[in-house]
Structures are given as structure tokens and as C-alpha cells.
Specification:
Oligomer: single chain
Largest sheet: 6 strands, mixed
Structural class: alpha/beta
Number of strands: 17
Shape: globular
Helix content: 40-55%
Number of helices: 16
Radius of gyration: 27 Å
Distance between the termini: 51 Å
Strand content: 25-35%
């Protein structure tokens, strides 16, 4: 079975200037990896004719599949379409079907079309028109000398739609792809190196056709198991067998699998148990409430939240005692425990969670430097709290606090709600 090689070309000055982060190439790489296509090159090129044509020529020499994003807008600095026409030596002609689709797109949104928008329905005559159902720039598919090209808009949701609906389903018809099965174990509350130590002997004993990858991210570590072979069912069973072997060692850190988010996993736990939660966020400023409410149906278990930044409102709203604040300060175990109890009672919730800390970049002290955060979770008969020593970056501290608070809630639900 021959390896299928792909190259991703991202076009746009804004990418080179750092005005936009190229998340498209990252996403495309992940999707291609899932189906057994190897990305051998990622190229970022500005809006310059000679550079774009050189990128096309270089990619054609080394890749079987070339995926291009960006440069398909209606303005003069969008060069991808005319340069593809030049590179493939074919004229640009009106595609009535494309013009009709663009016209319908504007009509649905009650917007007026311009002559430039109509020109987006004019495409190189040697390409296959691929409808863009969520935007105005069509996809363009080219084939030459055994190499396949797809040009897509740089707008992420438009690109993803074209990839999922057209490119990915087409690949098995063009190439003999390996059978691959991925399963991701998602953990929180443990660092990558500690996790690796816990499962070192299991990892070393994995079969040759199953590979393990550590994928750390903000407050999380993902373990991705990938099985290779010729029979999908057999590979899936082999991967699942290894997961069952490792889970007993790391179960207390595992909150889900594959695309499941921590806040989604917590919502599932609360719904299944019929329990509710309320939040008191000081240093996290409502960020944890935001995470919880991104989950559809969160109104079933989220009672309410407060952001009592000033100590006066920690007292008046949550019932934190003045003596606690005077003796221990707002950033203390005693304060977050009283906050979690108070918000639980305030909203008549089963669980109350709280945060208070020095997010930075200033406000720290020798005793409580920037990055010092206390979190707590209270139930009917318990309060659990934890101290975090985080970073000097304010936004990073808020995000890390969010993960830590949600993970503490998860632990408390699983520990006490039995």
C-alpha cells in the first residue's frame, strides 16, 4: 500500500503578518491523519503572484493531494483563482450553477449582490465546481497527472464544510487508504510526565500495530491510541482492549473520550444524577459559567452564578464573614470554602463551586504571588478545596482556573453522589 502524501497551502498576507492564526492547516492535518493521509508539507504564502505560483509548482512535485485555503474573496488582492487558471492554462468562465447559488445565498440573507460577488461564480474552465453551501466562494477541484487539488475559502467553517462534504468522502475513491482506528482518552488534573510514568509499562507492552501519542493542552492531557491494519473491526477491538487494560490505573483522571469536553462530561454527570450546581467566581470572572453554558441543556442543572469581585459583595451576597476576610484575605482556603457554601445556599443547589485568586499581572505579594488561586466545591455534607500555583499570564490563569474548578466539581460528583 503506497503512502498518500498531502500538502497544505495557506494563502494570505494576513497569515504572514500574524494578523490571523492559521487554524485551518492544523484542522486539515488532523482530519487527513484520521484517514491515513500523511501531510508532508505545510506552506504559508503571501498575496504575491510569483510566490503563489512557486508554491503550486513545488507542491505538485512532492504531493499526491494539494489542499489550498484562502485567496478566494471578491477583491483584487484575492489571487488564488486567477493564478490557478494561469497555472493550469485554462480560461476563467462563468459557471451558471455557481452564479445561481451565490445569488440565492444573498437572497436568503436579504443582502444586495455586487458585480464583484457575481464574479465569484466565474471559475477556471478546467476545474470541477464544488458548491459552497455556507458561503459565496465556491470550491474548485483539479486533477492533473495523478495529483489532485482542492481550493477552498479561508473562512474556517466554510473550509470545514467543503472538507467534510466533498474532499474526505472522495479520498477513498481515489487512493487505497490504510484502515486506521483512533480512540482518544481525555484526562484532567494530572501532568503529561506524571501520566506517562503511571502507564509506562503498559505503553511499552502495546502491540506493534497500536501507537500511543500524548497530546497535552491547557489543563488537559489526551492519550490518543491509533491502530493500523486491514480489518476495521479487528483494529477497533484491539484498541478497545488496550483501553480497558489502562483505565483502572488512570480512571480518576479520565473524564471522557474523543471529542467530549470536560464541561460536557460534567453536564452529563449532573443530568444523570438529577443534581444542580451554582458558581461564585472571583478571579475567573464568569469564565467558568461561560464554559458550562456552552453545553446545550445546561439550564437543567445550572442554578445561577455570581461574580463577587469586591469583598463587600462576598459578605453581602454570599455570607462570607468579615472576620474570615480580615484574617485570611480574599485569596484563601477559608474564603473560597465560605463562598462555595454561600452560593450553594443562595441558589438552592446541590453543589456550590468557587474561585478566588491573583490573576495578575499585578496585585501579588510575597505570601500570595501572581498565579495563586484557591478553588472549592461544597455539597450538603462536605467542602473540598485546592490551592493552585499558576503563571504570570492573566488570561492563562483564568483558563487554567476554569479547568481546575470543573475538574474539582467532577471529582466531587463522582466521590459524593453515590
Amino acid at each position: 500500500m503506497q503512502l498518500v502524501k498531502a500538502e497544505i497551502i495557506a494563502i494570505g498576507d494576513e497569515l504572514l503578518y500574524g494578523q490571523i492564526v492559521d487554524t485551518n492547516s492544523h484542522w486539515i492535518s488532523q482530519e487527513l491523519d484520521l484517514v491515513g493521509v500523511k501531510v508532508v508539507q505545510k506552506t504559508t504564502v503571501g498575496d504575491k503572484r510569483e510566490d503563489i505560483l512557486a508554491a503550486f509548482e513545488a507542491a505538485e512535485k512532492r504531493a499526491d493531494l494539494i489542499l489550498i485555503t484562502g485567496g478566494l474573496g471578491p477583491t483584487q488582492d484575492d489571487l488564488t483563482k486567477p493564478l490557478l487558471a494561469e497555472y493550469f492554462h485554462c480560461p476563467i468562465k462563468e459557471v451558471p450553477e455557481a452564479v445561481e447559488a451565490i445569488t440565492a445565498f444573498f437572497k436568503r440573507r436579504g443582502r444586495e449582490m455586487t458585480p464583484l460577488n457575481i464574479l465569484q461564480g466565474h471559475l477556471p474552465s478546467c476545474c470541477t465546481y464544488v458548491p459552497n453551501e455556507v458561503g459565496t466562494a465556491p470550491g474548485m477541484w483539479f486533477e492533473r497527472n495523478g495529483t489532485y487539488w482542492m481550493s477552498m475559502p479561508g473562512v474556517p467553517h466554510e473550509m470545514k464544510k467543503l472538507m467534510k462534504d466533498f474532499v474526505l468522502p472522495k479520498l477513498p475513491t481515489l487512493f487505497e487508504l490504510p484502515v486506521i482506528y483512533h480512540k482518544v482518552i481525555k484526562t484532567a488534573g494530572i501532568g503529561e510526565s506524571w501520566l506517562a510514568d503511571m502507564i509506562n509499562d503498559w505503553e511499552n507492552a502495546l502491540p506493534e500495530n497500536i501507537k500511543l501519542a500524548y497530546l497535552p493542552s491547557l489543563g488537559h492531557v489526551k492519550l490518543r491510541l491509533t491502530g493500523f491494519g486491514t480489518n476495521h473491526q479487528e483494529i477497533q477491538q484491539a484498541v478497545e482492549k488496550q483501553i480497558q487494560l489502562v483505565l483502572p490505573r488512570i480512571q480518576k483522571y479520565v473524564y471522557g473520550f474523543n471529542e467530549e469536553r470536560l464541561e460536557t462530561a460534567i453536564g452529563k454527570l449532573l443530568r444523570e444524577s438529577g443534581k444542580t450546581v451554582a458558581l461564585a467566581e472571583s478571579c475567573s470572572g464568569g469564565y467558568i459559567s461561560h464554559l458550562i453554558t456552552t453545553v446545550p441543556g445546561s439550564s437543567q442543572y445550572l442554578q445561577g452564578a455570581v461574580v463577587p469581585y469586591h469583598n463587600e459583595f462576598k459578605e453581602k451576597i454570599l455570607g462570607v464573614s468579615a472576620k474570615t476576610l480580615e484574617t485570611w484575605g480574599a485569596v484563601s482556603e477559608q474564603t473560597v470554602q465560605e463562598m462555595s457554601k454561600g452560593v450553594r445556599e443562595l441558589f438552592h443547589a446541590d453543589f456550590g463551586i468557587s474561585s478566588s485568586g491573583v490573576a495578575g499581572p499585578d496585585g501579588g505579594s510575597p505570601e500570595k504571588p501572581v498565579g495563586t488561586v484557591w478553588i472549592a466545591c461544597a455539597g450538603k455534607d462536605f467542602v473540598e478545596s485546592k490551592k493552585l500555583q499558576l503563571t504570570q499570564d492573566r488570561m492563562l490563569n483564568i483558563q487554567l482556573t476554569g479547568v481546575a474548578v470543573l475538574n474539582l466539581l467532577r471529582i466531587c460528583i463522582e466521590k459524593y453522589d453515590k
